[in-house]
Write a structure and sequence with these properties.
The complex is a heterotrimer of chains A (157), B (259) and C (275). Chain A has 157 residues and is of the alpha/beta class. Chain A folds into 2 domains: 30 residues; 101 residues, no CATH class. Chain A is elongated, with a radius of gyration of 24 Å. The termini of chain A are far apart. Helices cover 88% and strands 0% of the residues of chain B. With 259 residues, chain B is mostly helical. Chain B has one domain. With 275 residues, chain C is an alpha/beta fold. In chain C, the strands form 2 sheets. In chain C, strands 6-7-8-3-9-10 form a 6-stranded mixed sheet, with helices on both faces. Chain C has a 4-stranded antiparallel sheet with strand order 2-1-4-5, with no helix packed on it. In chain C, helix 7 packs parallel to helix 8. The longest helix of chain C is centred in the C-terminal third of the chain and has 18 residues. Chain C is globular, with a radius of gyration of 21 Å. Classes of the chains: A alpha/beta (157), B mainly alpha (259), C alpha/beta (275). Chains in contact: A-B, B-C.
Chain lengths: 157, 259, 275
Amino acid sequence: MRQTRSIEISTGLFIILGFCALFFLATQTTNIKAYGETGGYEVTATFTNVGGLKVRAPVTMAGVDVGRVTAIRLDPRTFNALVTMRIVSKFNEIPDDSTAAILTSGLLGEQYVGLSPGGSESFLKNGSKIQFTQPAIILENLIGQFLFNKAASGGKP
Amino acid sequence: MRLLRELYYILLGFLQGLGACWLFLFRILRYTPGALLRWRIVWQQIYSVGAMSLVLIMVSGFFVGMVMGLQGYNTLSKFAATSALGTLVALSLLRELAPVVTALLFAGRAGTALTSEIGLMRATEQIAGMEMMAVDPVRRVVVPRFLAGAVSVPLLTMIFSAVGILGGFVIGVSFMGVDSGAFWSQMRVNVDVWDDVVGGFIKSIVFGGACSLLAVYEGYYSHPTAEGVSRATTRTVVNSALAVLVLDYLLTAFMIHGV
Amino acid sequence: MASAERNNNNNVVEITGLRYRVGEKAIFDRLNISIQRGKVIAIMGPSGTGKTTLLRIMTGQVLADRGRVLVESQNMARLTADELYALRRQMGFLFQNGALFTDSTVYENVAFPLREHTRLPESLIRHIVLMKLQAVGLRGAADLMPGELSGGMARRVALARAIAMDPKIIFYDEPFAGLDPISMGVIVRLIRRLNDSLGLTSIIVSHDVDEVSAVSDQSYLISNGKVVAYGTPRELEQNKSAWVRQFMKGLADGPVPFHYPAPDYAAQLLGEERA
């Protein structure tokens, strides 16, 4: 009987260990906290090109995580990209003339939205639209432009 | 012409096995609610199927994680992107390595034990004895073992992942000098709860069900001789490995395109 | 006529016109057997006549090809799985090798059917198990594992397990095979005593003539798929048929030849030389 008991206790420990592992993976290796925040407020911004930006990409300000991209749509009239972002509610004093830029972390890193503060006295709130945006830098266009400029200035390599 | 006929019979045999396995699954599922009421039997089976595989899974997970740490560091350092090591280790473990390797190890360690145990019970007429005592052996012997396997594999997979990430961390941070903060923060940005953790968990549930089903099926329908049991055990390993790899492809394709 | 037979409750097992074949080989061909309640009935025959198959047919493990098999007035061919299990609760079955669960103790083996079929409290189960083990003389072995038992002891434990649920019929598959004389004597006595004290009907399949003669009320002799002789041990002893005499006395040659059918010995040897 005692043997059965120790077997059953070991089984219990095994199952608890398994769920601990699941809990560890879900909370420590992911950004699960970002999901919990259905609070906060949503702002939109229009970009001429979002490059490789994806839903759930981080929104940062001076390198600090302040929110997530929640949706990327194409505006059917202007053919611009309409990006919706959810900003954590404690960052509720972001000037409404801030600039949103699509940046890349490192040469091969993920793309994210970086906010640079403006000087306005009024702040972004739910439903606000960020007026000043800077599209993603497309490497191919940049190289093309560089070569074109070289050719136009008549410089021969 | 002869070859075609051979192929035809092989295909027919495969379909028959698949169908029989499927019917067996329904028979098992019908008894599952009743078996859950007698949870002590299932609980004791989880011990021999799951808890006994724990050390194997943890050691394997740790080494796989360390290998990922080494390989990942070497490759990433060529792109000066070693800070992405955490992402690399976590994603490859969570999405692929942990579910697949755990399922394969489970088939080798616990699946074979299940098959030979049930097969020997048949060979020594213990199964027939139960039937004569008006106890359905599927309900009493097969279902608890199947459930124990199906429960154990997902848990073992999670343990494998967790230990593997720690293994990658030990190699990457302690030996290779990757920044500990970068290791974790990069991982957190790039690993998604639903796509990666839950996706891997779903895979492991499917693999656990498939491996356990194959193991008990082969055992229950093995020939009641020493040779029959040993053949059934071999088939368990081979079929489980094939099933896991095929299902892995199907699930991966579905998850990538479905989401 | 048929309904009269069905209502004849004095017969526990009633087999009429049984046919059963494996592949091309006919195991039973129009076999008739009826077994009276309360008796010890033996079914004897040479190895390979399908005695064990007959037991499997009577207990519903195997279905007959043709013919009617009534057990406790129920037609085995028409039972659903649930009805069959309900019928089997009234049966005990002693396998040739015992078929004990090798990873449970003797006690747990005997307790198994009680735990599966009843919701009795542990104290009552303990009482019943010890009582059944006492009946086979192995109460002291309750904590042993089946691997630690001798062949005779294992069979007695299996017998205790078979009677745990107080069955009405008990089937013995070769209960005397491979036992030493003492164990054999013990089993013989147990079969008789359990049958009389518990009011059972016992059906024994065996080819051990002496032991069967010592224990059985009546015996069937089966050969080539048919009943060859039937009667009390004394009647069979005095049977005039050459075949019955050969079987009962254990003579090497007789109607059943010593040699398996083969081409002429000398011709075959010469033939091989030529090839």
